[in-house]
Design a protein that fits this description.
Pfam families: DUF5789. It contains four helices and four strands. By secondary structure, it is mostly helical.
Length: 94
């Protein structure tokens, strides 16, 4: 499952609120497509959380996004704004 399709899948699979165990029983073994050769399942991600119930598809999606591994993030520590070295502390940028 692609992350971009996850919310729609949650809407079609579940009636909310939904218990954690129901999510795990229904789609816990579904792999989430990512940038690595070692994909995580929905169950792997939910194992990192303490949530026992999800009130909406957005709630479940936000929990997945907030707990997914670094292999799904893209370039870690990337900053396209350049270095902050040499910036005057009193300087304000809008």
């Amino acid at each position: 499952m692609r992350l971009s399709d996850a919310r729609d899948r949650f809407v079609s699979e579940f009636t909310f609120p939904v218990e954690r165990e129901t999510v795990l029983d229904t789609i816990g073994d579904v792999e989430i497509d990512g940038l690595t050769d070692d994909p995580e399942t929905v169950g792997d991600v939910l194992d990192r959380t303490s949530s026992e119930e999800f009130h909406s598809a957005d709630d479940l999606y936000d929990t997945i996004i907030g707990s997914i591994g670094s292999g799904y993030v893209g370039r870690r520590f990337y900053d396209d704004r350049g270095s902050n070295a040499g910036i005057d502390v009193d300087e304000v940028s809008f």
